[in-house]
Amino acid sequence: MTTIFLRVAAAALLAACAFAPALHASVLIGGTRVILPAKGGEVTVRLTNDNTTPALVQAWIDRGDPQSTPDSVDTPFLVTPPMFRMEPQRDQSLRILYTREPLPADRESLFWLNVLEVPPKPAELETDGKNYMQLAVRSRLKLFFRPEGLQGDPLKAAEQLRFQVSGGSVLVSNPTPYHVTISDLAVDVGGKAYASESGMVAPMSELRLRAEGLPAAPAGTAVRFTIVNDFGAATALIGAVAP
């Protein structure tokens, strides 16, 4: 899940980006990713306002543009309610509905769920009319649309990854129809583990991960990696460099 901080004025819901890593979202999302099966055509995401003050919340789905706004997106999904007030210490359910517009039937499609939280105006500013600046927090979660009848088990897709090593990088091949998120990966060469960057391999695609100092590795060399499954849990696996 990605969190972005936005500066907003009193009447604005979206404005220029700012970074404030010391802040945290008060509206918590139940999970780190969303799986939407085509068979059911909808999924529910639970939100919780963990703060002592209310918040205005807006939700929308985009195709991967972190600068997207509700007015600029065009996806085959509806989010309801799209905007609402959350009282403190209360829950709210978001329904995500697939509108049945055509999507690839032989693999998953990736979208992003955005949840924007705008805190209320400070009480001491309600009557004095002074200008003020406040921070809105936007969280982004991966949303995987999963067609019916895909081959294989999504929880075992990572076991089918293939690895090739060349000049300081690892090429990861994913022959499955599922996305695989790699949170960490290391290749054991000469008694030393060479760590690579993390990343997500799209279905039936390849991804090259940089691994500083990684030398050539013969076939069968151990590749230790951790993936994030449908439930947001980490699973450690061991693979090998392919011939």
Automatic annotation (TrEMBL):
What are its GO cellular component terms? Answer: outer membrane-bounded periplasmic space
Signal peptide residues are 1-25
Domain (Pili assembly chaperone C-terminal): residue spans on this chain = 172-235
Ordered alphabetically, the record's keywords are: Chaperone, Fimbrium biogenesis, Immunoglobulin domain, Periplasm, Signal
Its family?
Belongs to the periplasmic pilus chaperone family.
What's the main place this protein lives?
periplasm
Protein source organism: Lysobacter soli
One Pfam family assigned to this protein is PapD_N
Pili assembly chaperone N-terminal domain mapped to chain residues: 27-150
| Identification of the protein by name | Molecular chaperone
Q: Which InterPro entries match?
A: Ig-like_fold, PapD-like_sf, Periplasmic_pilus_chap, Pili_assmbl_chap_C_dom_sf, Pili_assmbl_chaperone_bac, Pili_assmbl_chaperone_C, Pili_assmbl_chaperone_CS, Pili_assmbl_chaperone_N
Per the record, the GO terms for biological process are: cell wall organization
> In the UniProt record, does the keyword Nucleotide-binding occur?
no
- Compartment list: Periplasm
